[in-house]
Structure formats: structure tokens, C-alpha cells
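Example 9 (inverse folding). The structure is encoded as follows.
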């Protein structure tokens, strides 16, 4: 499901004064409730890394697969960032979180690398497809 489709659903709800909607596609289901801030995404796409296998020296990026609020700190301690610039990360390692519709979604690295740049600050909104990390 594209972000444009979710935006269309929200606009449809607001325009027609529809307080609640449940929408299903092939592999995706979403429930939206404008009267409650506890809406929940039932199934979500996995965070992926943009891969460039042709040249190992080319930077790789980790992009947002959903919209929401980016969190760099651990969800429980909220003290130290999960990763910093210069940190080595392994494939499958959690490097951050995106909170969307009151659900905290892990951002994981799809490959080994070193954090070269963090493009989004902790607590800032993130858009679909936006680059969050650059790995080298």
C-alpha cells in the first residue's frame, strides 16, 4: 500500500465526515479511526536497505518504508542512541524506530556497514522513502 493511498483514505474520511474505516489490500490491512489516537496498523512492510551491489565503495542508504516519527534512542531506556556516526552495524541490527499510528516499528540494517551519516534527528517526522541513514 502506498502512502498516497493512506493519504487518500484520510482525506476521504475527513471530507465525508467518516470517523472509522477498515481497508484491506492483498498483503496489507489498515484501520483508521479519526476519533481515537489508538489506530493500529495490522500488517506493515519490512524496513529495507537500498542496496548497490555493483560497487562496494558506493554509500548505501536505509530508507523509511512508512511515515511516522523517527526515534534514534532505545524505546525502553530513552537515554543513549542505538547508533552513532562511525558505529559498525551488522545485518539485522536495530538502528532506530519509526512510530506510526501508535505502533513502534524497528528499523534494521539489511547489510553490514558503518554509519556514515544520520539524516533525521530524534523525534522528527519522516516520510515514506526518505533516507534515514547512509552506510559505507
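The amino acid assigned to each position is listed next.
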Amino acid at each position: 500500500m502506498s502512502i498516497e493511498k493512506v493519504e487518500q483514505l484520510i482525506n476521504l474520511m475527513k471530507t465525508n465526515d467518516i470517523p472509522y474505516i477498515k481497508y484491506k489490500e492483498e498483503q496489507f490491512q489498515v484501520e483508521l479511526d479519526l476519533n481515537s489516537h489508538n489506530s493500529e496498523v495490522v500488517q506493515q512492510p519490512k524496513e529495507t536497505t537500498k542496496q548497490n551491489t555493483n560497487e562496494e565503495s558506493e554509500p548505501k542508504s536505509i530508507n523509511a518504508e512508512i511515515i511516522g516519527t523517527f526515534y534514534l534512542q532505545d524505546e525502553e531506556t530513552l537515554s543513549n542512541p542505538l547508533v552513532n556516526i562511525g558505529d559498525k552495524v551488522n545485518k539485522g541490527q536495530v538502528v532506530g524506530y519509526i512510530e506510526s499510528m501508535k505502533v513502534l516499528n524497528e528499523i534494521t540494517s539489511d547489510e553490514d556497514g558503518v554509519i556514515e551519516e544520520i539524516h533525521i534527528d530524534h523525534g522528527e517526522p519522516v516520510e515514506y522513502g526518505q533516507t534515514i541513514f547512509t552506510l559505507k
